[in-house]
Design goal:
By secondary structure, the chain is of the alpha+beta class. The protein has three helices and six strands; from the N terminus they run H-H-E-E-H-E-E-E-E.
């Protein structure tokens, strides 16, 4: 399906859009804004929301995979921190040592939500599963992160 869409985009739309994408791909500068809001935080779940804005879109108008992963990672980290008192030099901050992502879908507008829950909450290792959801609760990504406390 994706190959068909790409073929349609590049063959059927040989116009200004094609030139803009080619110029974008050759460009050495990338810039954009990204923000999110924590909407719920409790001992076993953190929910955040990221508005889909121009700064997080790829040249095809869908959300950059990295923006979705950033949202999932930060939401999982907020959950992993919990009530931990992080030291002035970052002691006990939950460092992500592994991230596994399955990108399942995408979208062009609206909001993206991340819901992080513990798989395992330990003193030495913590594992968090974060579901990234789009409009109408559509599953966009499943992300699992593993965290260890900084020393």
């Amino acid at each position: 399906m994706f190959g068909v869409w790409i073929n349609y985009f590049f063959v059927a739309k040989k116009d200004q859009k094609m030139i803009d994408i080619q110029e974008h791909l050759k460009s050495t500068r990338r810039a954009g804004e990204i923000e999110f809001f924590i909407e719920e935080r409790n001992d076993d779940c953190v929910v955040s929301r990221m508005p889909v804005a121009a700064g997080i879109l790829n040249p095809f108008g869908t959300v950059q995979a990295g923006a979705m992963l950033w949202l999932a990672d930060v939401t999982a980290t907020v959950l992993a921190i919990g009530k931990t008192r992080v030291g002035e030099k970052g002691q006990r901050f939950p460092l992500a040592i592994n991230l596994n992502a399955n990108l399942l879908s995408n979208q062009r507008g609206g909001d993206i939500r991340a819901e992080a829950r513990f798989v395992r909450k330990g003193t030495r290792i913590t594992v968090v599963r974060t579901r990234v959801l789009g409009n109408n609760g559509h599953l966009l990504a499943e992300v699992t992160t593993t965290h260890v406390p900084a020393t």
